[in-house]
UniProtKB/TrEMBL annotation:
It comes from Aquibacillus rhizosphaerae. Keywords: Oxidoreductase. Its EC number is 1.-.-.-. InterPro entries: Bact_Lucif_Oxidored (IPR050766), CmoO-like (IPR019949), Luciferase-like_dom (IPR011251), Luciferase-like_sf (IPR036661). Gene3D superfamilies: Luciferase-like domain. To bacterial alkanal monooxygenase alpha and beta chains. NCBIfam families: oxido_grp_1. The keyword Oxidoreductase applies. Residues 1-255 form the Luciferase-like domain. It comes from the Bacteria. CDD domains: Flavin_utilizing_monoxygenases. GO terms for molecular function: oxidoreductase activity. This is LLM class flavin-dependent oxidoreductase.
């Protein structure tokens, strides 16, 4: 089974954004040593708990500090940007680091409404133009606008020997249909989707249009996974993750140390408890044997070509250990 890494560059309690970004570099380096196929870093805006707001900057650093692992964006949020600029940026990366660059493209805002307005104005209007923007971006990447097109003589330079590999990322049938129509690779976010992911992925594969971008459909399914030596330890880490995810909307800062954990759990509302159960239900959690069974089941049910893992624990050491244990599983 091909395994890959999605990194949201989390800022752990008591750590700084600089420390989070250094941990991201270390994760990519370890991922390469452990045999992971690719490493992607996400884009978020105005979120103090997530440090990566400009993936392309981090990709330059990470590519320079690794040798062979494929690296990419998970994702560049295209509604915020002009396709030409993204094509130039990723062509530059593909020129510097040949055959290693993935260009993951998404349509989410990646932050608050205020952050979206600060980035690009009317976000909803830009989302409506997403298919058009993706098509234009592909034309810039492949330098194949029709001769009579306004941009036919406009080139996204430098031009690499091989263009970066484009991917459509999504959580719904809209993204799957677009990826299929464009004949490009697709990554489905199992860990954050509320739709029937298996139907979404199967529709992508059934509708796929073969073209010069990709000869046959290729799909990644991204899973939130936490692995530890024992199931009990893994469940403890998962509980802390779920608690942080749910209670971060509270105005007060809560102490999630072992001595205070019981008190926090007792303070949860019914709505918060339900949200924790929902978050946990989408996760893969356990010891290596249990995680192997769960990941294998997801791969089979989705008919996935690759599994990408996103892991957030309460410290960088246990996060690295989780990726290490999963990489060492014999699938």
């Amino acid at each position: 089974m091909k395994l890959s890494i999605l990194d949201q560059s989390p800022v752990m309690d008591g750590k700084s954004a600089a420390e989070a970004l250094k941990a991201s570099v270390k994760l990519a380096q370890n991922g390469e040593k452990l045999g992971y196929t690719r490493y992607w870093i996400a884009e978020h805006h105005g979120m103090e708990q997530l440090a990566s707001s400009v993936p392309e900057v981090m990709l330059t650093l990470i590519a320079a500090k690794t040798n062979s692992i494929k690296i990419g964006s998970g994702a560049i949020l295209l509604p915020h940007y002009k396709p030409y600029k993204i094509a130039e940026t990723f062509n530059m990366l593909a020129t510097l680091f040949p055959d290693r660059i993935d260009l993951g493209i998404g349509r989410a805002p990646g932050g608050s409404a205020e952050a979206s307005i600060a980035l690009s104005g009317n976000f909803l209007e830009n989302v409506k133009k997403f298919p058009e923007k993706v098509t234009q971006l592909f034309h810039f990447l492949y330098d194949d606008f029709p001769k009579n097109h306004f941009y036919s003589t406009t080139r996204a330079l430098p031009k690499p020997i091989n263009p970066p590999q484009p991917w459509i990322l999504g959580t719904s049938s809209k993204s799957a249909v677009l990826a299929a129509e464009l004949g490009t690779a697709y990554a489905f976010a199992h860990f954050m989707s509320e739709q029937d992911g298996m139907d979404v992925v199967h529709s992508y594969k059934n509708m796929f249009t073969v073209n010069k971008n990709l000869k046959k459909p290729y799909c990644i399914v991204t899973v939130n996974a936490i692995c530890a030596k024992t199931s009990e330890r893994a469940e403890d880490l998962a509980l802390l993750y779920c608690l942080k995810t749910v209670i971060q909307v509270r105005e007060e800062k809560l102490d999630l140390s072992t001595k205070n954990l019981k008190k926090v759990i007792q303070s949860l509302t019914t709505e918060e408890n339900n949200k924790i159960k929902e978050t946990r239900s989408k996760m893969v959690v356990g010891n290596p044997i249990d995680v192997k069974k769960q990941l294998s089941k997801i791969k089979y049910e989705y008919d996935a070509d690759e599994i990408m893992i996103v892991t957030i624990t309460n410290d960088y050491r246990s996060r690295l250990k989780s990726y290490e244990l999963i990489a060492n599983i014999s699938f």
